[in-house]
Specification:
single chain; alpha+beta; Four Helix Bundle (Hemerythrin (Met), subunit A); Jelly Rolls; 2 domains; seven-stranded antiparallel β-sheet; 7 strands; disordered C terminus
């Protein structure tokens, strides 16, 4: 099956995950089970799979939330399976540390990972390719190397990158344009205007911010950024948010 370029890297991760899951399953059948193989799988999960899950949760799963036809059920399943796999890995770590022979956990973890990968490849990824606009998927194909902050031309989010600790996004708006007022309740944000100017309204107080100037916007504040007469290009930087997660529905 031909996969969209934005998803190819994740599919390659899936192939490696299947190889490791099969090794873990074979190791569980040893007499006694091969704890060295269990330890090798845990190292692989910490080095590769945790980053894979985080990439999915932060960059790809939100695309399904924002789609014209939100895919609530398969998205919830994928997130739940991520948490189940984390729990099984934690259980295996405890058993290996205690010197036990964790045959049952090794088999359960191998099967859970294989089933999760097949679900994403056969159901979730084709759904992303079907309902997410091509333009948004193409943006995720762009390399995350150095970027010229004065280009490219365009409107809206132009570039973004993240590390384990930080998120940064480059945005641009034409003269007079302004995204709707919103509240970021999770993180303080550093706003750096690179070109043009903007009127930044925070909790009803408006401030003119010109190119070469910066300001912080505290979490919990209502904010609106309106481009000046020459438009605006700015960088938004904040501590990385937690991955997309399942949360309990509040009682009504």
């Amino acid at each position: 099956m031909k996969r969209h370029g934005a998803l190819i890297g994740l599919s390659h991760d899936h192939h490696r995950g299947l190889v490791q899951a099969r090794r873990l399953r074979r190791a569980a059948g040893g007499d006694p089970p091969d704890q060295g193989a269990a330890a090798a799988f845990l190292e692989f999960f910490a080095r590769d799979t945790r980053w894979h899950f985080r990439d999915e949760e932060e960059r790809f799963f939100p695309l399904l939330v924002d789609a014209d036809r939100p895919a609530t059920e398969p998205l919830a399943r994928a997130l739940l399976e991520h948490q189940q796999l984390y729990a099984l890995v934690s259980k295996l770590e405890g058993e290996v540390a205690a010197g036990d022979a964790p045959e049952a956990t090794m088999r359960q973890l191998a099967q859970a990972l294989e089933e999760h990968i097949r679900f994403e490849e056969r159901t979730l990824f084709p759904l992303i390719e079907k309902v997410v606009p091509e333009e948004r998927l193409r943006r995720l194909e762009e390399p995350r190397g150095p970027v010229a902050l004065s280009s490219p031309e365009g409107t809206g989010p132009l570039w973004g990158t993240e590390t384990e600790d930080l998120n940064a996004t480059l945005l641009a708006w034409p003269p007079g344009a302004a995204p709707p007022e919103h509240v970021n309740s999770e993180r303080d944000v550093l706003l750096v205007v690179l070109a043009g100017s903007a009127t930044v309204t925070v909790d009803g107080e408006a401030r003119l911010v010109d190119a070469g100037h910066a300001m912080t916007i505290e979490k919990g504040s209502a904010r609106r950024i309106a481009a000046g007469p020459g438009g605006v290009r700015y960088l938004s930087v904040h501590v990385r948010r937690s991955p997309l997660q399942i949360s309990a529905v509040s009682a009504r």
